[in-house]
């Protein structure tokens, strides 16, 4: 059985780590390099760095910060935000990250996923999906539970722009085009600490054969457990509970291990 992964996330705006609720009301959470070093010492499995305003502001990801982070840590490191073409991906990989996360550009030009996976390998191409409950057609209605929204719509430009596209259908297409992993964020749960959207997570995880990282809503260690078991996720991404020292990565892994979830203990 493959070990489940614990992944802290650094949402970066104007060179600082920030955290908000439902992608809004951002507050400062420290320096990205200092946070990265802290999580490296905590023995996190991976780290995700998202330049959350790059696509909306039509600019490139801050490669200087990416370089500083990459030079300071030893764990796998994914970078997203402002990636539009193969040159952007190459520059970020050269800056030191192990994987890149693409969202807006992939939705606008799905063939970018194919070109990127063929050029750099699917193992380093992560497709990020920001999804909100909506009314777009649901091709997998069997995953919906009575009383809950039967579908999820994907958003781009840092959650600012609805697309009318169904999240489950898009995840399947991304996999076929060569994505090696899905980073799935529930916009409804982001920053709320109410728990991951288990129905969304399970709908995506059981529809694709590639790893799915659950994101959005972690408020306690039980939420991590639910996403990995009930939601069938391969990894859980969290920010607030780690940034503000509510829990440590070690506490999270110890808890999951006691609950019989396979995790990597360094």
List the helices and strands and how they pair.
Blueprint: E1 5-13, E2 16-21, E3 24-28, H1 32-41, E4 47-51, H2 63-72, E5 77-80, H3 86-95, E6 99-102, H4 104-108, H5 111-120, E7 125-134, E8 151-156, E9 161-166, H6 167-177, E10 181-186, H7 198-205, E11 212-215, H8 221-229, E12 235-238, H9 240-243, H10 249-258
Parallel strand pairs: 1-4, 1-12, 4-5, 5-6, 6-7, 7-10, 10-11, 11-12
Antiparallel strand pairs: 1-2, 2-3, 7-8, 8-9
Helix pairs in contact: 1-2
**Which structural class should the secondary elements be placed in?**
alpha/beta
The Cα radius of gyration reads 17 Å
How would you characterize the largest beta sheet? Answer: 8 strands, parallel, barrel
Helix and strand element order:
EEEHEHEHEHHEEEHEHEHEHH
Helical fraction: 25-40%
Please, how many helices?
10
Number of separate strands: 12
Quaternary assembly: single chain
């Amino acid at each position: 059985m493959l070990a489940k992964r614990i992944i802290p996330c650094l949402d970066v705006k104007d060179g600082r780590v920030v955290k908000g609720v439902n992608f809004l009301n951002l507050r400062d959470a420290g320096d990205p390099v200092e946070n990265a070093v802290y999580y490296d010492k905590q023995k996190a499995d991976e780290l995700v760095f998202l330049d959350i305003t790059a696509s909306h502001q039509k600019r490139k990801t801050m490669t200087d910060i990416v370089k500083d982070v990459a030079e300071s840590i030893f764990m796998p490191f994914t970078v997203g935000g402002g990636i539009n073409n193969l040159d952007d991906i190459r520059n970020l990989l050269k800056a030191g990250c192990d994987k890149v996360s693409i969202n807006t550009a992939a939705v606008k030009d799905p063939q970018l996923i194919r070109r990127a996976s063929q050029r750099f390998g699917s193992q380093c191409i992560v497709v990020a999906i920001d999804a909100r409950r909506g009314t777009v057609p649901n091709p997998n209605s069997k995953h919906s539970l009575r009383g809950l929204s039967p579908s999820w719509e994907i958003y781009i430009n840092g959650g600012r722009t609805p697309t009318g596209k169904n999240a489950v259908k898009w995840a399947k297409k991304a996999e076929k085009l060569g994505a090696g992993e899905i980073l799935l964020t529930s916009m409804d749960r982001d920053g709320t600490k109410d728990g991951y959207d288990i129905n969304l997570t399970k709908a995506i995880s059981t529809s694709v054969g590639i790893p799915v990282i659950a994101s959005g809503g972690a408020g306690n260690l039980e939420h991590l457990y639910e996403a990995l078991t009930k939601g069938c996720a391969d990894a859980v991404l969290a920010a607030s509970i780690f940034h503000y020292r509510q829990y440590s990565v070690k506490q999270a892994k110890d808890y999951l291990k006691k609950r019989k979830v396979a995790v990597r203990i360094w």
